[in-house]
């Protein structure tokens, strides 16, 4: 498993928590920062998946 997958998931969870905290407290800046971090984590996780797929394809051929 590529490191980007685990790091991306970590950022997604952290961003979701920031976003929720921002919503609860009414802090729009924290909510926006959490949303950005969550989406960046999703992108990083997908990049890790792509690396894993490429590695698997290389092993098969």
From TrEMBL:
InterPro entries: CsbD (IPR008462), YjbJ_sf (IPR036629)
Bias kind Basic and acidic residues: ranges: 1-21, 28-61
Domain CsbD-like: 4-56
One Pfam family from the record: CsbD
Region Disordered, residue ranges: 1-61
Bilayer-spanning residue ranges: none
Family membership noted in the UniProt record: Belongs to the UPF0337 (CsbD) family.
Protein name (database record): Uncharacterized protein YjbJ (UPF0337 family)
Source organism: Luteibacter jiangsuensis
């Amino acid at each position: 498993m590529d490191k980007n997958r685990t790091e991306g998931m970590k950022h997604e969870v952290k961003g979701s928590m920031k976003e929720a905290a921002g919503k609860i407290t009414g802090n729009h800046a924290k909510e926006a920062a959490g949303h950005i971090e969550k989406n960046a984590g999703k992108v990083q996780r997908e990049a890790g998946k792509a690396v894993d797929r490429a590695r698997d394809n290389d092993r098969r051929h």
